[in-house]
């Protein structure tokens, strides 16, 4: 029988470090919050190699009393609270007393600090949780802490870290968020001795937004503000011009604490979509100030989640504030009378509110019914079942050339061929003419299997609603989504050209210059080779600015700026551990925006050509996003609809 043991301090600190110190960005967050709590007005952050080699933070706060230097690194030692009752009225960033001992247990840490009343400071050096030395030191009022060789004694944790550039971007992101929450503090951030964020502590949030996100975003945002008896909310929401395909540019602060909260996110997005129904996520920065007794911040060690005593009231406050701001903004922009704008009623039951959608459900493809019965296939070829037709599709191999279909016929199948056949999109063609032309093009023809049609050549009937192609084969009616079908054709063509390193690029008449945030720029640098391999020619054009000179030819005439930002957002969400194939697939999906759109009128020839191209791709039955490209209605199903049969 195993006996119960008390863990020693070193072991318990390392276990606690696993909760508090997930990566270098966690260290920076905890140390910056300590600096903010010390009432610092100037904070400098310096990192090397994504924070894994060195993290240094300098502030001009109150400092730590010399007698408390060693206490600061003891578990659950804190100056923020003194009893359990204080937890319910917390107005500081930290309070648990776990950060410093956890950090010191997995790194080589040196801290120097001085208070204003004493002429000299105090320095402590700790390695792996063991105190090396404590001595007097000369320093300015405030605190300097250096965290070197993070996770040097926990190699397993090092293996799970991302690349240095990705870890650096995580740190940059958390510095940006804390700078937004504290516009009255001047932040200076450098990564590998390269200047990053620089704010000036003017107290104006719009100045920090411009420093963090750039000029274009700061000029496309609308302020909002609303107050109740227990809470106040204010911030900015962006217009459709700066909406993105991910939620990376969304920030929520409750009592200046950066958090992630689905309730507030849903409230802002619902208010935004009531005016601008675009399939992107809005930019927003939300500040909620609420009495501490109405929230619980002691939910998670990282303090990134909180609970509200009244979720419904917070949702309504947020929704109303953003909704009214957007309403007034549109009224001023388009000179529309106030009463003519939509008025959204958000009075829902508690049950409805709990079901507010935050994350869109991914499209499920496992239950999609394929429009072609796969049981009729013979080695990936469609066999005709039509009575009287002596041509089996397993005897004819199709080789797709740029603008024509060639039929390769084996000797056994020649005996059963009729005198002529009808090729989709062409008039009647003599079989001997096909063979003769084939012999001319390929002397000493060797019969070989090429691309195989995945379904038979449909007979095009017409177009419905300028969106769906109606086609017939035997006794079955098929509806083809022209956009989804063309999108899949372009996707597979582009993906194949990436794999074969055979991408055609087009030179832009005017290069597209894009100013990126530091986070976006870091993602680009990390994936620069991926962009080269997918047909982009991009040059560095100054600090955090790039110039796009060439794009893949298959894109047609895309909005290069939006496409590039969408690709960056998707690459960021994937992380650095994904394979090249996954990244290429993602870029190929986004690159198919040149596909035929819904409501595009197509001629009969264009519809036949589209279906013919679709027949020969690897997987014609679903689009790159998993939606079906073809659905079918059998004659039996239609006759049942018309009550001709039971």
TrEMBL record:
One of its GO terms (cellular component) is mismatch repair complex. GO terms for molecular function: ATP binding; ATP hydrolysis activity; ATP-dependent DNA damage sensor activity; mismatched DNA binding. Keywords: DNA damage, DNA repair. Residues 209-327 form the DNA mismatch repair protein S5 domain. PANTHER family: DNA MISMATCH REPAIR PROTEIN MLH, PMS, MUTL, DNA MISMATCH REPAIR PROTEIN MLH1. InterPro entries: DNA_mismatch_repair_CS, DNA_mismatch_repair_MutL, DNA_mismatch_S5_2-like, HATPase_C_sf, MutL/Mlh/PMS, MutL/Mlh/Pms-like, MutL_C, MutL_C_dimsub. Residues 460-602 form the MutL C-terminal dimerisation domain. GO terms for biological process: mismatch repair. This protein is involved in the repair of mismatches in DNA. It is required for dam-dependent methyl-directed DNA mismatch repair. May act as a 'molecular matchmaker', a protein that promotes the formation of a stable complex between two or more DNA-binding proteins in an ATP-dependent manner without itself being part of a final effector complex. The keyword DNA repair applies. PROSITE patterns: DNA_MISMATCH_REPAIR_1. The keyword DNA repair applies. This is DNA mismatch repair protein MutL. Belongs to the DNA mismatch repair MutL/HexB family.
